[in-house]
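Board work, copied verbatim: DUF2007 domain-containing protein
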Amino acid sequence: MKKVCNAYDPTEAHIIKGVLESYGIKAEVQDDQLHNLVAGIGYTEAVIPTIWIFDDRQYDEAQGILDEYEKKKKDQTRDEVIWVCSSCQEESTEAFTECWNCGASRSP
Ligand SMILES: [Zn+2]
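↓ predict structure ↓
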């Protein structure tokens, strides 16, 4: 067993596990149960879900796949940003016709 990365939340952890397994790398999510147990108290680093692979020899391959996954995720985030508020410079997506941050109308 070898840890390949941390996830932001259990949902993402399971997405990453699915991505790895689609490449034939057997993976497991740990700590997501604990996540629920402490939900009322708040999150600590100890309960951030982690993704582990069973075969240590696939570690480098797994890292490569995760790099690609992160890159794709960033690209998607970038695509969603359609316009920048002229008064506060916050970025908004197409779905917003007014700035989500300060309420200014979308600039032409
Ligand atoms: Zn604004």
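The chain has one domain: 2-79.
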